[in-house]
Design a protein that fits this description.
This protein is of the alpha+beta class and about 425 residues long. The chain is about 30% helix and about 25% strand. It contains 14 helices and 23 strands.
Length: about 425
């Protein structure tokens, strides 16, 4: 087990470069097993999720190598095999193997995935997509068994709710299905467009990514002929923008696609941060006065639920009470009691309402990361607080943030990671 130790109060300055998108990467890697050739990615973030996905693939005789942001995957010798439940349960995105295995073999057996505990995230919309394509789905304790005895066939599917996971899984299952699939009320996130770009470059026929209607004409083979560069991580970018605004004396955040962050940027500006938005970077100046704001999380292109926690510590610097309404995952509030241990004044109420009041006397304490983005909020809070902050269960943070220690150290932050024998809580 690992814990982060932060000595806060130091002002941040300099440059930080954002890595490839975690939420793209964890979909692209399972998607790669659909290929009938070696697949190569670059701008791959150095995060624990990548290593766990490699373990899962290795169990199927899929070879891979990962170094300096470059990931090679060779699925040409893939075999059907029982997937390692420990690795599956360590990250929720492992459920994308349901769609990719179904698309590859016409069947899949996957242990029910784990990942962050941020409230109920059922897979009913995933199952709806699979069944519409002609699959049969059975549950056996914590195992999902999916079979398509008569093959997969294109059809029209309307998602009852916008779901990134279900959209991705349906695409993965449908890309080799016979005929045309029309997926309506699809999620619009940039990571879905990234996945579709990867698949189309291998010969898939998918149109409409980035809109709420995606059309998929099934193909027999997918062959990779070039390296796929993963898009920059908009959530990592938003995290460093918040960090720089809260504790910075001038920070340039590089490798950003500003169009992916429009709702977040608008709220930062509304809060009083005079961002200099450039073509592929954003400069965050030192900010002396912050305004209280109201935020509501919604599906893309709205304010991302994954940026709700990272902006929370920043809003304690505002002159009045700020309000956040968490519409996506109302139970995503486990960062709040931990931030309060640092001296912040934050309350959460029913239906995902979070009230953030001005807090001036912050001091380090021992806290615990309950999930990736809650942990990111604690890192920002620790950097803002005087004295030492210890963040237990930091594996959660390292699952989602590329070279976190190096990047914060380069900005003049005092942060290090230590091993501990204590079990995760």
């Amino acid at each position: 087990m690992k814990k982060l130790i932060i000595h806060g109060g130091r002002r941040l300055s300099g440059e930080v470069t954002i890595g490839g998108a975690k939420n793209s990467t964890v979909a692209l890697i399972p998607a790669s097993i659909l290929a009938d050739s070696v697949v190569n990615f670059d701008s791959v973030p150095d995060i624990l999720d990548v290593y766990n996905l490699q373990i899962i693939m290795r169990s199927m005789n899929v070879q891979s190598s990962f170094s300096n942001g470059e990931l090679m995957i060779d699925p040409t010798g893939i075999v059907e095999a029982e997937l390692p439940s420990t690795a599956i349960k360590s990250l929720r995105a492992s459920y994308y193997f349901m769609g990719s295995l179904l698309g590859r073999f016409g069947r899949a057996v996957v242990t029910f995935p784990g990942g962050d505990n941020i409230g109920p995230r059922p897979i009913d919309q995933h199952v709806k997509g699979f069944e519409a394509l002609g699959a049969e789905v059975e549950y056996d304790n914590d195992t999902v068994r999916i079979t398509a005895p008569n093959g997969l066939h294109g059809t029209r599917i309307y998602m009852d709710m916008v779901s990134v996971g279900a959209t991705v899984n349906t695409i993965l299952a449908a890309v080799k299905a016979e005929g045309t699939t029309i997926l309506e009320n699809a999620a619009k996130e940039p990571e879905i467009t990234d996945l579709v770009t990867f698949l189309n470059n291998m010969g898939a026929k998918i149109r409409g990514a980035g809109t709420d209607t995606i059309r998929i004409v099934g193909v027999e083979r997918l062959i990779s002929n070039n390296v796929h560069t993963i898009i920059p991580d908009r959530i990592e970018a938003g995290t460093y923008l918040s960090m720089a605004a809260a504790q910075g004396d001038g920070v340039l955040v590089k490798n950003i696609i500003p169009e992916h962050l429009e709702a977040f940027i608008a709220k930062m500006v509304e809060a009083g941060v005079d961002l200099d938005v450039r073509e592929d970077s954003i400069y965050v100046p030192k900010t002396e006065k912050f305004n209280a704001i109201k935020i509501k999380t919604t599906p893309f292109p709205g304010f991302a639920t994954d940026l709700q926690q990272p902006i929370t510590p920043l809003l304690t610097l505002a002159d009045e009470e700020s309000l956040i309404t968490e519409e996506i995952y109302p139970e995503r509030t486990r960062h709040i009691p931990e931030l309060n241990k640092l001296g912040m004044d934050i309350d959460n109420y029913a239906h995902g309402l979070i009230a953030i009041r001005p807090s001036t006397q912050l001091s380090g304490n021992v806290v615990a990361a309950a999930e990736i983005r809650a942990g990111a909020a604690l890192v920002i809070g620790g950097l803002m607080s005087e004295g030492e902050t210890v963040i237990n269960n930091s594996e959660h943070i390292l699952r989602g943030y590329d070279r976190l220690i190096h990047k914060i150290t380069q900005l003049n932050g005092d942060i290090r990671i230590v091993e501990t024998d204590e079990p995760m809580q």
